[in-house]
């Protein structure tokens, strides 16, 4: 592609995101979880205990589609569900110590993979790249640009969702 032609950001990000997700999947599977389960555990780690509805908002996953993930994670001892004292119909979902351990192991494995991917760049270039990504995400969020999934629609989880 000639230097004068500029590709849209999404056209550049999507293939990279897909490749990163493909590289992350076996790392997550080695820890007994799927990409969506990692997204759920990260949302609980970052935001604390939540109802299923709140967790749906944090993850961009429809609340009914979360059930299978919550069931698996609870069966594995990675999260707990208890009645919400403010609403007996709702449950409070919390990550367990075991769940936090899985998140730490997965994050470490993913960071190692990312470091290998970016090793051809200098430390300053890597730091600059991450800063640019963080600024783009922040600007998109503060300007109301779509950074997540519209209510009622599921998106594919991406590496950024898992952080």
Automatic annotation (TrEMBL):
Top-rank lineage group of the source organism: Bacteria
Keyword NADP: no
Keywords, in A-Z order: DNA-binding
Residue ranges of domain HTH marR-type in the record: 6-138
GO BP, sorted A to Z: response to stress
Ranges where the record places region Disordered: 141-163
Cross-referenced Pfam families: MarR_2
GO molecular function (one): DNA-binding transcription factor activity
InterPro entries: HTH_MarR-typ, MarR/SlyA-like, WH-like_DNA-bd_sf, WH_DNA-bd_sf
Keyword hit for DNA-binding: yes
Record SUPFAM superfamilies: Winged helix' DNA-binding domain
Protein name in UniProt: DNA-binding transcriptional regulator, MarR family
Organism: Nakamurella panacisegetis
């Amino acid at each position: 592609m000639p230097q004068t032609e500029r590709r849209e950001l999404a056209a550049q990000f999507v293939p990279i995101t897909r490749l990163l997700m493909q590289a992350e999947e076996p790392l997550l599977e080695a820890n007994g979880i799927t990409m969506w389960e990692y997204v759920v555990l990260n949302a609980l780690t970052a935001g604390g205990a939540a109802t299923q509805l709140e967790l749906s908002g944090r993850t961009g996953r429809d609340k009914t589609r979360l059930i299978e993930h919550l069931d698996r994670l609870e069966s594995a001892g990675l999260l707990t569900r208890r009645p919400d004292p403010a609403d007996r119909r709702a449950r409070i979902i919390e990550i367990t110590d075991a769940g936090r351990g899985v998140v730490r192991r997965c994050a470490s494995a993913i960071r190692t993979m990312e470091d290998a991917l970016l090793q051809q760049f200098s430390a300053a270039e890597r730091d600059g790249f991450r800063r640019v990504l963080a600024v783009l995400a922040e600007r998109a969020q503060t300007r109301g640009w779509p950074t997540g999934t519209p209510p009622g629609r599921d998106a594919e989880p991406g590496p950024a969702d898992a952080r």
